[in-house]
């Protein structure tokens, strides 16, 4: 059974096109949680066919994480893209992350919808709060995207 996490962040007085334009390498590095430390190996962008590769630096070992943007698009004042894990750390066996940036009157809402699975239900349950907290970490960073 896949675990699902959905987190919405409202950015006041923002435009979805301007917010989406900030989804670049610099933002990706800001969004990386403090633990584990991340080394970015490749960041192509947010368009279908792009790749993101990083190294997770744990105190005693390193793990590679590679994702491919498998789809992207826009409609009705919203832009979205989906990344799928192609090479994952040993503790995750499946990963898909749908990013949605949408206009809501004068504000923008960013929705992170994550589906993941570890190698069994127990490990999935164990890692759920860790991954959830790592995405909560993004909220204040996202909220700052309305600043020039």
Characteristic terms for this protein:
148 residues, alpha+beta, Alpha-D-Glucose-1,6-Bisphosphate, Chain A, domain 4, 7-stranded antiparallel β-sheet, 4 helices, 46% strand
How do the strands and helices of this protein lay out in sequence?
Layout: E1 3-11, H1 16-21, H2 25-31, E2 37-43, E3 51-57, E4 62-74, E5 78-87, E6 94-104, E7 107-117, H3 121-136, H4 139-143
Antiparallel strand pairs: 1-7, 2-3, 3-4, 4-5, 5-6, 6-7
Largest sheet: 7 strands, antiparallel
Q: Assign the CATH class.
A: Alpha Beta
Number of helices: 4
- Please, how many domains? 1
Annotated CATH topology: Alpha-D-Glucose-1,6-Bisphosphate, Chain A, domain 4
Descriptive notes:
With 148 residues, the chain is α+β, with helices and mostly antiparallel strands. The chain contains four helices and seven strands, in the order βααββββββαα. Strand 3 and strand 4 (62-74) form a beta hairpin. The termini are far apart. The model has no long low-confidence stretch (mean pLDDT 96).
């Amino acid at each position: 059974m896949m675990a699902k996490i959905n987190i919405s962040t409202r950015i006041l007085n923002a435009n979805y096109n301007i917010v989406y334009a900030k989804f670049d390498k610099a933002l990706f590095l800001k969004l990386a949680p403090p633990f584990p430390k991340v080394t970015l190996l490749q960041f192509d962008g947010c368009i279908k066919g792009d790749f993101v590769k990083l190294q997770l630096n744990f105190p005693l070992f390193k793990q590679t994480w590679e994702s491919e943007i498998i789809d992207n698009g826009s409609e009705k004042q919203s832009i979205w893209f989906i990344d799928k894990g192609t090479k994952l750390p040993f503790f995750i066996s499946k990963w898909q992350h749908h990013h949605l940036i949408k206009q809501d009157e004068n504000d923008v809402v960013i929705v992170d919808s994550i589906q993941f699975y570890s190698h069994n239900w127990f490990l999935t349950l164990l890692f759920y709060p860790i991954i959830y907290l790592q995405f909560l970490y993004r909220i204040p960073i996202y909220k700052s995207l309305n600043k020039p």
